[in-house]
Here is the input.
Amino acid sequence: MDNVYTKEVTKRFLEASETIMADKRLSQSAYAKSIGTTPANFARMKANPGENNVSIERLCEMIHQYGISPIWSITGHGDKYADPVKVAAKEILKSRIIGMELVVDDIKQALKILKKSAK
Here is the structure.
């Protein structure tokens, strides 16, 4: 994976990473952990982007976690951020799903209690 194309993707990854850390007020360490890498690995990539390129896993984590456009990340075309309406809708759905999972857990607990009391 050591070609000009990969280096360009890594360059955009690092550009987006800097923007994310500034916008979200994240330390480099917290950001690195949020995308599933160690602070040391992220620092190495940042120091030598031509030698240490981004992995597809880290790129996907950044795209997923922070709403960066996959098209922009790979090609450099279009907006850096994915459609904010879609990102917001995804977050709302995710929170609703989590809420529903909590309700299901509560119902399961209530059923266990009812079963025990019926004995």
Observations:
- Residues 84-118 form the longest helix (35 residues).
- The helical segments are 4-24, 28-34, 39-47, 56-66, 70-75, 84-118.
